[in-house]
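The records we work with from here on pair a chain with its fold. Taken together, the tokens spell out the fold as the letters spell out the chain. To see the layout at work, look at the sequence and tokens printed below.
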Amino acid sequence: QPHKKVSEAIRHGWEAVQQYPTERDRLQALTDLAWSFVEAGDLSSAEDACTVVAHRSEDFAYRTYALASMAYIEAARGDETAFKIRIGTVDETPWRSGSPYMVSEVLLMRGQSYQMLGNHDPAMEWLERAKAFSHEHGVHQVTFKAEAALESLQTSGSSETATPDAQTPTTLEGVAGVRDGLSSLRRELTLV
């Protein structure tokens, strides 16, 4: 049961966020937790987690992942205007100077985002960049994902394979407390 594993991963991720002794470790765990929510299709909870990381993290990599994930989330929602605004925020950072793994993932997410939005040419361009950069730097997992997305675009010309697994938030079990906790963390940002 894949949704049970995702639910369990989310609960464990939230426990890590709460139990890590340092803010840096908590924000790293929150970054991982955000992507678990993206993969589960719970974009609101993912956005809450990313927003907290983007505002509280002083770590370049975590902040960049959060900002790039927020753009990806807007693309998954089909909101091209919000996606472009988020991409503008990402591009204000020096993300291209990050680790090869991070740069590879950001390139891949951008290509997948354009694919989800049905923008074939930019999707091809960014996925080709992700493939070439990740291959050059030995980030094979990203190379394989970029190749698969490119193949999908070339054979179908559509956006059908870039979206996260189609789990709806309602299929996640026992994560309501996690959602509430993330929402509270995000609301705290408006109070500071």
